[in-house]
Design brief:
single chain; 5-stranded antiparallel β-sheet
Length: 200
């Protein structure tokens, strides 16, 4: 039995498709408060690590891409509003970490989103049982939007609800309560995305 709310899926798809045609002028990554002596690292070459989410400044206003538990913990989601509405800010709260200057975004900025698509994952959950063996919730299937793809004239950019595994940062746990921004189909395939319609 699939338990997703169909109205939530319709609302989600509407927000994703509303990105098409928007022109992105700036990108801001947000992370948890950095308690270390050096700057937080976000650039890993063909992928970036925003952790708490991304704010896109567009010609229609700010757009936030972050992770939520709308469908099940955790999926990627889009909101047509500033990221600050989704973060608890304060002296030790999340903070903007980049990008500044040249980055993989440089050739993309000031160009429109040509197409926006989502990768949905089906997760089968077994029945929930008590220690006595009594079933308290039947088995179910949930569908989670784990990644968003935005196509630009220069190529695609993916946003994933995914956690790169410390310390190598090569392995990735999906779905997760962090945001990765990926610039290559090879990296997406390495993360386990194999649908050619989504990663080609």
């Amino acid at each position: 039995m699939t338990v997703n709310d169909p109205d939530a899926r319709v609302a989600f798809d509407r927000k994703v498709h509303a990105l098409e045609g928007l022109r992105i002028y700036a990108v801001d990554y947000w992370d948890i408060h950095n308690y270390g002596p050096g700057p937080a690292r976000w650039d890993y070459g063909d992928w970036h690590h925003a952790v708490m989410g991304v704010q896109l400044s567009t010609d229609a206003g700010p757009v936030t891409v972050t992770w939520t538990n709308t469908f099940y913990p955790y999926g990627v989601e889009v909101f047509a509003e500033p990221i600050e509405r989704h973060l608890v800010l304060g002296e030790d709260g999340p903070e903007r970490i980049g990008p500044d200057g040249e980055s993989r975004w440089t050739g993309i900025l000031d160009t429109p989103v040509l197409r926006a698509t989502t990768s949905w994952e089906r997760i089968e959950l077994g029945p929930a049982t008590l220690a006595s063996g009594e079933v308290v919730e039947p088995a179910r299937v949930v569908e989670i939007p784990t990644a968003l793809r935005l196509d630009f004239g220069t190529g695609p950019v993916w946003f994933g609800a995914a956690i790169p595994q410390y310390p190598s940062m090569e392995g990735v746990f999906i779905p997760g309560d962090e945001i990765m921004i990926v610039f290559s189909a090879a990296k997406m395939r390495d993360m386990g995305y194999d649908d050619p319609r989504f990663v080609a």
